[in-house]
Design brief:
This protein is α+β, with helices and mostly antiparallel strands and 177 residues long. Helices cover 33% and strands 36% of the residues. Strands 1-7-6-5-4-3-2 form a seven-stranded antiparallel sheet.
């Protein structure tokens, strides 16, 4: 009988944790560069360019990568399969608003399945061109319990900052050629 009470208590605890745990998260970082919004848009919409500056490329230089479709166009896909740190997944361009907005769908297969949204907002800035890189995740139950203890801000915020600095160096060096 005690085991039934313990199991009932654990089930109740899990149910409460699933209800109070976050259902999603959003992370954004921005940078200003001295290129035009058109140059920023053209660079960011290329999934092949992402491999040059993306913050996760260094974590598994031996990962398998590939592409489907016309790079930089709606429906184009970049896929990867790597070590435990980078996992396995694909990114597809879903929306393009010339020189102002790019939206992609990230489909993770490993280490766990998830479908999330990534975006880049591009705008004029007094010092040049401002780019805001955003990530929006939805957490399924019971996986959302993990996010009571893990912060998306802390998990990928620094990666976004590093990625934007690397992108700025990449795109400005190409612009100066």
């Amino acid at each position: 009988m005690i085991i039934v009470y313990i199991l009932s208590g654990l089930v109740a605890l899990l149910a409460v944790l699933m209800l109070i745990a976050p259902k999603g998260a959003m992370v954004e970082r921005s940078i200003v560069t001295k290129i035009s919004p058109k140059e920023a848009f053209d660079s960011l919409r290329s999934l092949k360019n992402f491999d040059q500056w993306g913050p996760w490329s260094d974590r598994d230089p031996m990962q398998d990568r590939g592409y489907r479709g016309t790079d930089g166009e709606i429906g184009s896909v970049a896929w990867w399969k790597g070590n435990k740190e980078v996992g396995e997944g694909e990114q597809e361009i879903k929306k393009l608003e010339p020189n102002t907005y790019i939206e992609t769908e990230l489909r993770f297969m490993k280490p766990f399945k998830a479908i999330n949204k990534s975006s880049w907002r591009i705008s004029n800035d007094p010092e040049g061109c401002k780019v805001v890189w955003g990530f929006e995740a939805k957490f399924r139950m019971p996986m959302n319990i993990m996010f009571l203890f893990v912060s998306m801000e802390n998990s990928i915020g620094k990666d976004f900052e590093m990625g934007l600095v690397r992108w700025k160096d990449f795109v400005e060096s190409k612009s100066n050629q």
